[in-house]
Amino acid sequence: MRIKFDSKDGVFTVKAENEEEKTALKTSAPAICNLIIDFFNGEVQEMKVAKE
């Protein structure tokens, strides 16, 4: 799965990369939440590295 966050509009776009992921997205709120959490964890790690 891929996630994109548009900070201007505050909108998340989640895209499944195959049929199995499409099913998971349709039936699993935790999968979507984990994807969003992972996205922001990655952003925070990148900012920490940039400041060092």
Notes on the structure:
This protein is of the alpha+beta class and 52 residues long. 0% of the residues are buried. Strands 1-2 form a two-stranded antiparallel ribbon. It has helices spanning 19-27, 29-51, and strands at residues 2-6, 11-15. It starts with a strand and ends with a helix. The longest helix has 23 residues, at 29-51. The chain has two helices and two strands, in the order ββαα.
Rg over alpha carbons: 13 Å
Mean pLDDT, rounded to whole units?
75
Largest sheet: 2 strands, antiparallel
* Distance linking N and C termini: 30 Å
Low-confidence stretches: none
What percentage of the residues does DSSP assign to strands (E)? 15-25%
Q: Helicity, in percent? A: 55-70%
H/E element sequence: EEHH
What is the gist of this entry?
With 52 residues, this protein is an alpha+beta fold. It contains two helices and two strands.
What's the arrangement of secondary structure elements?
Layout lengths: L1 E5 L4 E5 L3 H9 L1 H23 L1
Antiparallel strand pairs: 1-2
